[in-house]
Amino acid sequence: MTGPDRAQFYDILIVGGGHGGAQAAIALRQRGFAGTIAIVGEETELPYERPPLSKEYLLGDKPFERMLLRPAAFWAERDVMMLLGQRVTAVDAEARQVTTADGTTIGYGKLIWATGGSPRRLVCAGHDLAGVHSVRTRADIDRLMDELPGVTRVVVIGGGYIGLEAAAALTKLGKPVTLIEAQDRVLARVAGPTLSGFYEAEHRAKGVDLRTGIDVDCIEGGTRVTGARLSDGTLLPCEMALVGIGIVPAVDPLLAAGAAGGNGVQIDALCRTSLPHVYAIGDCAAHANGFADNAEIRLESVQNANDMAATAARAILGDPVPYHAMPWFWSNQYDLKLQTVGLSAGHDAEVVRGDPATRSFSVIYLKGGRVVALDCVNAVKDYVQGRALVERGAVIDPARLADAGEPLKTMLAD
Predict the structure, then answer these.
(1) Residue 267 CA: distances (Å) to CA of 13, 24, 117, 279, 309
(2) Burial letters for 53-70: b for 16+ Cβ neighbours within 10 Å, e otherwise?
(3) Measuring CA to CA, how many Å separate 354 from each of 335, 390, 402, 405?
(4) Inter-residue contact 107 to 9 (CB < 8 Å)
(5) Residue 178 clears pLDDT 70, i.e. is over it
(6) What is the pTM of this model?
(7) For residue 5, pLDDT beyond 90
(8) Are 219 and 132 in contact (CB under 8 A)?
(9) Are 112 and 24 in contact (CB under 8 A)?
(10) How many CA atoms lie within 13 A of 177 on its CB side?
């Protein structure tokens, strides 16, 4: 069900049609909510999976129809109104209504803000030239794919998951790729040196010209990109630049309405913002996370979006359960499947389990002797069994953790 209605009111209005927004609607209906629900989405597509965009979709291995979180009939059967192609530009918390870019006002009983974020842009000269791309929506990738036949060389800016995944996919498509990372190693924000070094070696072995510890000074070209100039003066000729340097949480309308926040909108353990009747979930929600020593963070993951959606739905329906979900992530690059559980930020030791040369190993992160996270490369058993170690903050002899011959599940039996 799509289409605008100028005199609109919904018992629950969800702003954002990504994983979190879709899951919030699903959770509400699963728990018996019978009132009216609408999802306002800036994109024109029904809610879909985003992780395949930089991997299977870019490679052409997964058609868009298989990325839909639910078919159109699902939303119609559950009476969830889809207000697509509409961007919310203002929130009036006192009047309980939002305004969209075309001036439409929509009233609500409860508001769930699930907007995620927009790609962080380069701020240097040339950042807006044709041929400079980001990865956030289907339209982003469709534009990139349309241009690829005329592209000989690609510069990827950013050595996080998005940049590495895109570099792997573009390399597989036969495009020479140079990847630029400003920090001294890739994945510096989310992993330790061992994993960073492993992925740097893998990408270089596949032909990626990977350069760390250097910035992009500007993007050169007339109307279209012709090269990327680095901070040391080096010019990298290219016909396409792909920027993957993080996201800016899309919370300006909430902050303008008086919600507490800054880098995201602040929420409590029940996903409530400081505004009455307004909840926030997913990438845009800053929260005290129990797996980060209750530091206030934003988690950019499908897991977080889905689990927060369930938390908000339960709170709205009078069955509150504070959010305390185990963080987990994944990344596919070439034939490598990385699975992460827990948060390694702030770790003070890492234990390598298995031999990275075999391309199947794990890195176990410790903080104060406690297991706080695992990065598992082609090591599914470690990932599955390591979850319990993180949940319990297990303290185990590092020598035992490093012994790949002893299953991790036996280490909690003592």
Answers:
(1) 18, 16, 16, 7, 13
(2) bbbbbbeeeeeeeebebb
(3) 18, 19, 7, 9
(4) yes
(5) yes
(6) 0.95
(7) no
(8) yes
(9) yes
(10) 29
